[in-house]
Design a protein that fits this description.
Elements lengths: L7 E12 L2 E12 L3 E5 L6 H8 L7 E6 L2 E2 L5 H5 L2 E4 L11 H6 L14 H13 L15 H14 L4 E5 L7 H18 L2 E5 L3 H7 L2 E6 L2 E6 L1 H4 L2 H8 L3 E5 L6 E5 L2 H12 L1
Parallel strand pairs: 3-8, 3-9, 6-7, 7-8
Antiparallel strand pairs: 1-2, 1-4, 4-5, 9-10, 11-12
Helix pairs in contact: 4-5
Amino acid sequence: MITDTTAYALTTRKLKLAYEGKVIIESLDLAIPTGKITILVGPNGCGKSTLLKGLGRLLKPKHGVVYLGSESIAKLSSKAIAKRLGLLPQGPTAPEGLTVRDLVAQGRYPHQGWLQQWSKDDEKQVNWALSITQMHEFSHYALDNLSGGQRQRAWIAMTLAQDTEILLLDEPTTYLDLAHQMEVLDLLYDLNQEQGRTIVMVLHDLNQACRYGDHLVAIRDGRVYKQGHPERVMTETMVQEVFGLESQIVSDPVAGTPLCIPIGRKVIQARDVTWKL
């Protein structure tokens, strides 16, 4: 069990999360390192998205505690959390007719108050978020009129405009083509390296997870199967036991990180035929 929560950005103790009475996360102890990129991997339905919602207080625990630094997240106000932690869930929705700029501007709401209305800093942050996600030219478009990839980038811009020390992102590359996937991941990497932001995200692509993650958490059936540096976590045994998939792990010839080569039925059958010959 983690005893010093101040050493981590987010910590859970005996965390239990459930939907409609069904337990998804059970007695989970997890520590998210400060200033690092942590990536959650695992098969569909294993609890990755549920865990992210629990970390962001979108889902109230049935048992256990989530700590934001040294403080129980349950005891903090919503505005206090929103100033420190930005969360982009899977499949977010917005009111019909909302423009991209209006959506991104919502990221500044935690910084507003009765005595502090829209400021030059708010405007600067919104323009920066639109620019860095390459959404400035679409700022006056309604979200409804955008492609799935453009909408995803708009939501990412809103999260960035919030300007928090911690970012929780559930599949941020969803709907994006390969080029835009790399742009988003490179952007998050730059934010981590240059500004020291703590980033936690769910990714399905294991090879992207190894390239961009400092800390990998492999989840199986609502529990942590293994966590640590990608070279420690990404093994053929882990892929078999977590994903039920035979694979070969080699060194990425470009990045030097673990590279997972899945071995499907076609390859296995072809290999068996070759052996028989």
